[in-house]
Amino acid sequence: MEKSILVVDDSTYIYEELEYMLSDTSFQLIGHAKSGEDAVDLYENLKPDLVTMDIVLPGMDGLETANIIIHNHADAKIIMLSSLAYDDTIEEAKRIGACGFIFKPIEKNALISALEKCFETN
After folding, report:
1. Contacts of residue 15, Cβ cutoff 8 Å, sequence gap at least 6
2. Closest Cα to residue 62, out of 93, 105, 87?
3. CA-based end-to-end distance of the chain
4. Sheet strand arrangement including 78-82
5. pLDDT one-digit tens code per residue, 89-109
6. Distances (CA, A) of 103 to 43, 52, 89, 96
7. Contact between residue 22 and residue 29 where contact means Cβ atoms under 8 Å apart
8. CB neighbours of 107 closer than 8 A, spacing ≥ 6?
9. Using one digit for the tens of pLDDT, what is the confidence trace for 13-22?
10. Mean pLDDT, rounded, of the chain
């Protein structure tokens, strides 16, 4: 059964890259939000199985957005994506409840491994 994914990233390129990487897998992209505010709204409407969340977003950042989504939906699965991550950022993502962290540029095997790991935990 396919797992639905909402991509939250202000870059259309990242969305297209993820779509290409996951085209031959059991993961299906069902939406793309370019801001934290849009991500919260889309999550409510689409109820994806998982969210990939960039940290640097216009308006509300990815950590704050993830915190809101997880606060409203305790079962939400979120993988943080970033090229600008420090130890304290990764620790904050874990504290919020993110199930994974992927560094950009994204490598297909690391992406699929992180996605599968998130679904193994619950």
Report:
1. 7, 9, 29, 32
2. 93
3. 16
4. 27-33, 3-8, 50-54, 78-82, 100-103
5. 889 999 999 999 999 999 999
6. 23, 12, 12, 18
7. yes
8. none
9. 999 999 999 9
10. 94
